[in-house]
Amino acid sequence: MVRLGVVLVCLAGAANALPKAAIRRQVSQLRTSYDFVVVGGGTSGLTVADRLTEAFPQKTVLVVEYGDIEFAPGIFDPPLTVWNGIGASASYFIYQSLPNTEVQNKPAFLLAGKALGGSSAINGMFFDRGSRFDHDAWNAIATSGSTPQAEHWDWNGIFPFFKKSVTFTPPTSNVAQTYGYTWDDSVYGGSTPIYSAFPPYQWGDHSVIRNAWKDLGVKQTAECAGGNKDGLCWVPGSNHPVTFARSHAGLGHYEAVNTTRPNYDLIVKHQVTRVVYPNGNPNDGPPLVEVKSLVDGHLFNVTVDAEVILSAGALSTPAILQRSGIGPANFLSTAGIPLVRDLPGVGSNLQDHSGPGIELNLTNPGNLSPSPSEMSNPDFVADAVAGFNSIPATGPYTLSGSNSAVFVSLPNVTSAYQTIISKIRAQAASDSVASSFLPPDYRTSPSMVRGYKRQLSLLADLLSNPQSPSIEVPFGTGTVFKAVHLHPLSRGTVRIDPSSPLSQAILDYRTGTNPVDFDIYLAHMEYMRKLVNTTTFQQRGAVEIAPGPATTDLLGAVKDSMTFSFMHPCCTAAMIPEDLGGVVGTDLKVHGTEGLRVVDISVLPFLPGAHLSSTAYAIGEKAADIIIEELSRCGKGKAKAKGKGKGRRDC
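^ that's the sequence the OP posted. Answer follows.
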């Protein structure tokens, strides 16, 4: 911690002492009211709070965070000696889904951040972006319909915010030459103290795995963060470029905020239970924010003058909306919650990356040092710790989970891709067929069926594009490979527990309920199995351990080896028009409400082909830009619309 603080101050000029005067721990420390309340001090929420307090010094912002301020170690920091093992971490929620009936009744397990910084404080630190085709498809469904949309979320609309959100530092020429790192400075360019970098270290077999993928015909792409993401990619980690400590939102958008910003308040260890429209009219806002202390259980309201920004994440944001009476009318009635706004899409559309795996064995590996097994040698570990404590840091502890992955389109994975695409298009053409794959209580909702059909149509286009990846296989070392299905068709739900509404929401992943997902899982597994026969691996005596060359039941092997969650849940308050089952518009305002926005990863209509951290930062940056522009129309944020309702909307 001391080393990190010194380097950030001296080299980045960003890490001042924590502005403790702004940290509130009880209601008596809060102001009478706030212009903005941000619900959730995570990746997107802290980004918005930072930008709003910076742009409008006279506007007050309160961030309400469930967790506390914690040190957030990287995923491979001392004293850990098992690479990719379980080490120290910031706090997190542990979720277990309902059993997945199509996959041997197995549940999904996943984590979500429970500390300042949210999931950016606990994730795998793989800092990539989706392709331009992912974002163009997002924009296509978000802007469906006859109403003109002021905001655009296609690649051109979000790329400037990807650039703004992070400061990338290239490796030294020596490190770049040693490992073959490639990058394009033009796709970065930010000055935000959210950092990314390539480590000055890789395990000895990393280049061997890269060469095996090249043998398979996968091209090496020089830069995959600029919208073109097809091939073998180098991916930076979310590390500080000198200390190689984890870079996360709690540092970059809170600790690095100057203590002279007195309009920025944070209250920790408090849960937002719901938002409350005092007269029950969602058009008369902004709502109050009802908050519960996690220390003494005290319940109180926070008065908001401008708007409430929900940034509690894909699993908690829909739960807050449902507790507020905003969500599916039938479900809320069953749960005994008075209806404020019927939005069936709240908590629907749950998606996560998932996929099966294979395992190889190298019977003639040769010299692949350094390897993670050497971490069992005390002298090797002592050198590694000394390297990590150096300035700049060196050695294996500068690694995160991975810096490489292959991204390959479905047409380049399987010759049967046209059959798969035809199945998806047939589903999209039929109300009865498409609805049969939705959760039962959505099958009679015309808007939900229309929206799912529109998603299927766009996903068919995406999956048939030879430049749009369908599979990701990340790797760092070893011979176990996972095929990440980037664009699943199955849809799940997030719902509060009626018997305990303030507890963790109930997740129903429903993995594989659209059977075409299994066609894609199988195609991905068969593609990965070709690795064993590459020249590079055959020279090292590669044999397939799982599923094994004699396996005839590949579908069973898919189900046996399935990872249900790569910790990328999203899409549960989707940016889709209301008549297609959506929750927010392109301005991120909740349909049919006043003074309420959602700014987090739940607004995605469907998963991009990327890990979600960098996307969450970009969403926060673009959201802040939208809000700042709106306030600027009211005299740089100084003027207030008179009254509520229509006056505020016009402003």
